[in-house]
Design brief:
This protein is of the alpha/beta class and 379 residues long. The chain has 13 helices and 19 strands.
Length: 379
Amino acid sequence: MELFVPKESKAEETRTALIPAGAEKLVDLGVTVKVEAGTGARSDYGDTDYTEAGATVASDRTAALATADIVLRVNEPSLEEIEGMKSGGIHVSFLDPFNEKELIEGFSRAGVTAVSMEMMPRTTIAQKMDALSSQANLAGYSSVITAVERLNRILPMMMTPAGTIAPARVFVIGVGVAGLQAIATAKRLGARVDAFDTRPVVEEQVKSLGAKFVKIDLGETGQTEQGYARALTPEQLEMQRKGMAKVCAQSDIVITTAKLFGRKAPIIVNAEMVAGMKLGSIIVDLAAESGGNVEGTRVNEEVVTANGVRIIGIGSLEGKVPHHASQVYSANLCNFIEHFWDKENNAFRLDLDNEILKGCVITHGGEIVHEQFQDKAAT
């Protein structure tokens, strides 16, 4: 069975879908691995590293896509590349299926089985394949480092002969995987950290990291079966903003992480709250790609407000540490393939009755098989 990893097409993408250690693991399974020349260059993996791992470096991208049984990528392909893929082949990457109707239809027309890594079920058995979590973890770390680079003061408290320097204050909004890592990173750097989440159940996790949990009475909130925060009503959002305004005003760094799966991110920090923050304060909006949690966020831009607050909306913060972001994403993909690998027949077992595959396979056999997207494609 032949597997191909093309070089990422987006100019801003620094990650690769498969690192040499992953290639070696798949070769040992019996997979013929090909990578496009230069696929790992931006994450510090050279072509010779891949050949030493048993992979072949291909220079003809079009030909490799046409013969590959499995294609691994970070981002979605173009419609033109989908048309050139092998009918009956499998494509695995982040696909943003809720917003990419034409892409889904393109996979269906081409007879390609499309696997969306965003749709991987959040179950115990699928945890090792959960790419959203592995990338969010690194994004949380990078959000703090990015803010610190721009902040004109230090994070830890220092007692010096010239006097005591008070610790910087960091406020993390949203305590999922990214938020928890942001809290942990800020604490390691010596900051005083506050955190808020609509799910009271995460309070103990916040306290275990040495941060203070900000309590705001919003009424009934809770979380979904997948562990995501439930969407708030407009009234609850307004109550939340009022409760957070004071904390934002006294914070040096505010990090927002609230994303609603498949939908536009909610505005949590409005213009009035930003206007109440201190000169030189930093906001890092991890939800920038899905609309942003902060009023005034612009994707992949840094906005300086009239009162001197910097709003940073980098789209892929995990891409700032591509070596390790590629490492963990590659591990997620390799675990996925290995989990369904039939050693006797040297093939990938595509059992659509399996809970994991039922959750993440969007198209198969020329049809859109995931029920959440069948109606979307028809409209």
